[in-house]
Protein 1
Amino acid sequence: MDRTLGLDLGTKTIGVAVSDMLGWTAQGITTLKIDTLNDDYGIDAIGELIKEYQVKTIVVGLPKNMNNTIGESGERTMYFSNLLENNFSGVKIVLWDERLSTVAAERALLEADVSRKKRSKVIDKMAAVFILQGYLDSH
């Protein structure tokens, strides 16, 4: 069974989650350091993850405004998804509405009584889990 990768794009990091072999659950695996201002989107590192986990689909969280419009971060995400398509031709790229994923991740970490310092280290990875799990649950 092929796996699905979930990505939560920020300006300095990308949270990464991967599905289990059956495509039922999402697990956070890493946070990649990136630099979008210098056009560094971690493409090489993502390529390694695609190989390691035999990924056939990448779900990228698309941040939309609450009124369903696309803002600056949504534009950056669309640029990033085009980079993925151009670099990984055999991989399906899916944009997934992520409006509340970071909020849900933050709430889950607060409920688990995770300290602020630890939360900041795992929030992107957790958001990627919420994005990917939402996609998996819909299929």
Note: The longest helix spans residues 116-138.
Protein 2
Amino acid sequence: MRNIKIIYENDRGESVVISNTFPYLLKSFIGGDGAEANITSSKGVGQDGSTITNVNLKERHLQIIGVIKDMDKSTLIKRKAKLLQVFNPKVQGWLQYEYGDVKKRIRCQVESAPTFSMPFNVFSVLYFVVDLVAPNPYWQDITQSKAEIAIWRGAFEFPIELISEGIEIGFREPSLIINVENKGDVHCGMKVQFKALATVVNPSLFNIDTREYFKINKSMVAGEIITVTTHFQNKRVELNKNGVVSNAFNWIDFTSTFLQLDPGDNLFRYDADEGIDSLEVDIYYNPQYLGV
């Protein structure tokens, strides 16, 4: 496992690095690539073969095999205890994979806490095995991607000479359309933020390719932010007003769709019934990958 680094951090903030150096040496990492599918099919009377009706991916099973080495027996025991503490089956976490420029992470549950073995007559080495399961089988980028549709650009530079006509210190980007590139292998959800700089009535986001849209039937005032999350099993609409976050599901237009990003290019246009020049829109997303 030369030059591969595995970093596991549980939800308590406890972490361990397993790489090509001691004290935690990575010997094998299994399950990082490929994805096993559940295939549902039907068969008609007299039909040769079958017709595939649905395909979905199973959870991903991961296994880490490594070695702890330390000439001091008490230190070896402490390093063993740290692995047991970090890979706690009662606490979920994130596993991060690094190899060269490739850096991906995946949400995990410890399926089997670390088990240890010691080679015969070798008291400074412990072999360990950890089994994990990822309910969502897709890997993600380490950092979230962001696309800004309507923003302000700075135009204030030095050196500066004051003139009677005044000075432009910024300007609003005029485009109402943006291409959001999903570099992942499958479609993914996203988080859309509508920000009101002044009064904005009924903001919306429209997918030019699919003709689907998401619309909020609300008059927003300056400073309000409405965040729409469209991830599978995590769909939310929230209003942030003066730092107080509340549920905003009741303002969804009944014909709205929780928009997804298809692999490749996705063209979006934002709109509002009134006050479109006072609307800023940001899109955050995590592309999903079938392997590392």
Note: The chain has a mean pLDDT of 88.
Protein 3
Amino acid sequence: MTATLGAFVLGTPDPRALADFYRAMLGWQEAERSPEWVRLKPPDGERPGLSFQLESDHIAPTWPQRPGTQQMQAHLDLQVDDLEAETERACALGATLREHQPQKDVRVLSDPHGHPFCLFLPGA
């Protein structure tokens, strides 16, 4: 048997609200929804999904990392065609542009619950 990645899961104090943000960002469909768990799936259904799990004591990671703070252990990379337009759209949906930007063709943002994610251009 070969293992296959089925989904990436983000912990959050409000799974439904965070799923709504990513559903709007990605244009994905909701496959399951409860107060403690929401699962999104891509339209083609062939790529791994994205799920959101209730963590009432969630602490948002810092970016960039600093000793003694909650460390980022993973982040999402979202490929876009227009970096500036998609950065503006993400912010309009509730994301925050982070002050520290380590690369020219990548934008680091935080989703509404503080998880860092990156927007990047093809080839970046």
Note: Residues 16 and 34 are 8 Å apart (CA to CA).
